[in-house]
Amino acid sequence: MSAKLPGLLIFLILTLTLLTACGSDPAATPTPALPTPTVTPILTATSTLNPTPTVVPQNWKYNWLRGIPCNAPCWEGITPGKTTLDEAIEIIKKLPFVSSYTIDYYGINFNWIHNNVQGIAYINANQPTRVISYIIPFRTFRYKLGDIISVYGEPTHIVAKAVNYGAIVGHSLLLFWLKDGFALRNPIDGTLPTLDTATMLEGFGVITPDIEGVNNYFVGAKYDIRPWEGFKDFNYYCIAIGFYANPDCSKILKATP
Hints:
Blueprint: H1 5-23, E1 46-48, H2 63-66, H3 85-94, E2 98-104, E3 107-112, E4 118-123, E5 132-138, E6 143-144, H4 145-152, E7 157-164, E8 169-177, E9 182-185, E10 200-207, H5 211-217, H6 221-224, E11 226-227, H7 234-237, E12 238-241
Parallel strand pairs: 7-12
Antiparallel strand pairs: 1-2, 2-3, 3-4, 4-5, 5-10, 6-10, 7-8, 7-11, 8-9, 9-10
């Protein structure tokens, strides 16, 4: 027993020394907290202007027919071929009818506060100044041909086509007021277009008053456009495309819905 006593005493002394050291360091430095990282928000090209619909005139979609604030080929102060992208953005931002807009490679997409209507102002991305090339402010609003004629006169040019898409037949009618720089087309509803003052048109587009503007509005239209010769039957102007055995539009009864 006496031989083991010195070793036991040494073990107890070492244990007490370690315990004392662990509990008697009031100046111990705590582990510093990591700094909160600063997150830089990612800028987007989307802006919400009027999240809550504002009170606007009910007939605002007819402003262009009243010359408010300008006549075609100007729309709301934007003129294709002259107005730059930056200038157009500033104009659209101030329109009380627009709820939001998005900028991308092709131009400005904007939403109206009524009926989820969308519009777009395209740009010529190949030009350093990125000039607006044409505008389609509202694709689905419809206008009576007679109302347009009462302000701007009869169209100057027309494209009328019956196109064979295999099992589907499509008819298209494009009317151009080329000297005034705008165009409209027939509704895509599967019906055969007619040509009279009661004809309803949609897709109002403001273009440059030249053949390039025609093709901007509808790709390939510059190859099929012809002068307006007054109110004729649709088939008088119609070009049948893809009906190799029967290229006569008058024998194509109707469009396929």
